């Protein structure tokens, strides 16, 4: 990540999200079952709202069957919802916003501890759609093995921040959202209208947080105050710390690198990345990084499971 100017204040979010909306995943025999978000001291307007949605209406990030690679990341709908643990304000599955085209931005929580680790896939889709596959594989893994979330930790997984881009399959167009904005150039530290991807000019949006996807995730991060945030990309093979005035992203990246085997990369070589997500998160004092998978095809599940376990242990050891 290119360092932003420390003197440049991080842009404020234009809006803040209310409590994430519970995503109802009713059993097959009870199509109208509902989930009510746990009450919270941070909101008074939506805490008692009961939302009823059907699985077919909520799982709108499912790509079209005609996209060849998509078959490998099809949502298998294996997550079931039980009442939220009292140690957390979050339901086990919830919607925290909508994309430009109105598709739900969905998150899944595992564990109920106060040390929260947020993982985000599909901020770029297109050729990086295997990151959505990885996040879905992680979701299925922790569903089957909840014991692999360490005591005192909670994981929140966002499989696809750019669900609209999934519709384009493995093509450059799929990197961008429905307004053709690059969602990793639209954040509030070091933002520039003159953004690039390699030597290609890309649309950074009209201003920081001009896109509903970045507003929704930024608001969620501000609300949750996670202990660390991991963003997944492909396929530059490396771990890149956020760099915008924070002090702990480098240590986080070194932990992830050592446990995963992806090389630690203190800066992104070759071209300047402006307005990136981990830089903005770092500006909040929350350690953050980009993980670049080694390939654009595989989920590379095992090495990332190892690294996520190491990060959980690091969070446990370094935060009260
Ligand atoms: Zn990317």
Q: Would you mind describing this structure in some detail?
A:
It is a single chain. The chain is an alpha/beta fold. It has a single domain (21-318), classed as Aminopeptidase (3-Layer(aba) Sandwich). Helix content is 22%, strand content 16%. The strands form two sheets. The protein has an eight-stranded mixed β-sheet with strand order 1-2-3-5-4-8-10-9, with helices on both faces. A two-stranded antiparallel ribbon has the order 6-7. The two termini are 28 Å apart. Mean pLDDT is 80; it is low at 1-9, 14-19 and 24-87. Zinc ion (ZN) binds at residues 124, 128, 184, 233.
Topology record:
Blueprint: E1 21-22, H1 55-58, E2 93-98, E3 104-110, E4 115-120, H2 130-144, E5 153-158, E6 195-197, E7 200-202, H3 212-224, E8 228-234, E9 238-241, H4 249-260, H5 277-283, E10 288-293, H6 301-318
Helix pairs in contact: 4-6
Bound molecules: zinc ion.
Zinc ion binds at residues 124, 128, 184, 233.
